[in-house]
Design brief:
GO terms for molecular function: ATP binding; protein serine/threonine kinase activity. InterPro entries: Anti-sigma-factor_SerPK (IPR050267), HATPase_C_sf (IPR036890), HATPase_dom (IPR003594). The chain is an alpha+beta fold. It has a single domain, classed as Histidine kinase-like ATPase, C-terminal domain (Heat Shock Protein 90, 2-Layer Sandwich). It contains four helices and five strands, in the order H-E-H-H-E-E-H-E-E. The protein is globular and about 40 Å long. The chain starts with a helix and ends in an 11-residue tail after the last strand.
C-alpha cells in the first residue's frame, strides 16, 4: 500500500458535513522530500485554512507547525529523488489536525537541542503551539501529527 492510499484509507467513510465528530479531510498533498517543499506545505495549509473561519493566531500557529513537521520529515524522513512526504489537514469536531507522513519508520529518541545549536528546536515549537502532538509508526513509515482546538470549523464566506 502506498503512502497516499494508506492515509486516505484511514479516512474512508468520513462524513463530509462540517462540525461532525468524525474526521473530515480538508486537504491532502504529496510533496517531494526537499527543502523547498516546506514553503509549499505552508501555502497549501494557508489555502485550506483560508476556507474556514478560524482565528488568525490559530491559522498562523498551524502554518508554523506544518513547517516544522515537514522540515522534520525532509531532514529525518528519508532522502533521494523519489522520497516524498504527505501532508494531510483534517477536522474532527472542534479539532484541527495536521499529519505529515514520511517513508522512514524510525521514531527515534527526541534529544533536547544544545543551547548553542542552530537546529533541533522544531518539535519544541510544535509542542508549544499545538494542543497535542505525537508520532506513530505505520506500515509505510511514520506520521507526525499535531492537533489544535479551534472551536467549530465553518466554511468562510458571508455570515448566515
Amino acid at each position: 500500500m502506498d503512502l497516499v492510499s494508506e492515509s486516505l484509507a484511514e479516512l474512508i467513510g468520513a462524513p463530509v458535513a462540517m462540525g461532525a465528530d468524525e474526521p473530515v479531510m480538508l486537504g491532502c498533498v504529496r510533496l517531494a522530500a526537499q527543502p523547498e517543499s516546506v514553503g509549499e506545505a505552508r501555502s497549501v495549509t494557508r489555502e485550506v485554512l483560508g476556507r474556514l473561519r478560524i482565528g488568525e493566531v490559530a491559522r498562523e500557529n498551524a502554518e508554523l507547525v506544518v513547517s516544522e513537521l515537514v522540515t522534520n520529515a525532509v531532514v529525518h524522513g528519508g532522502a533521494g529523488d523519489d522520497a516524498h512526504v504527505l501532508l494531510v489537514v483534517m477536522q474532527s469536531g472542534p479539532m484541527l489536525k495536521v499529519k505529515v507522513y514520511d517513508t522512514t519508520p524510525n521514531l527515534g529518541p527526541r534529544p533536547a537541542p544544545a543551547s548553542d545549536a542552530e537546529s533541533g528546536r522544531g518539535l519544541v515549537i510544535v509542542d508549544a503551539l499545538s494542543d497535542r502532538w505525537g508520532a506513530t509508526s505505520s506500515t509505510y513509515g511514520k506520521c507526525l501529527w499535531a492537533e489544535f482546538d479551534v472551536g467549530v470549523l465553518l466554511p468562510s464566506g458571508p455570515e448566515a
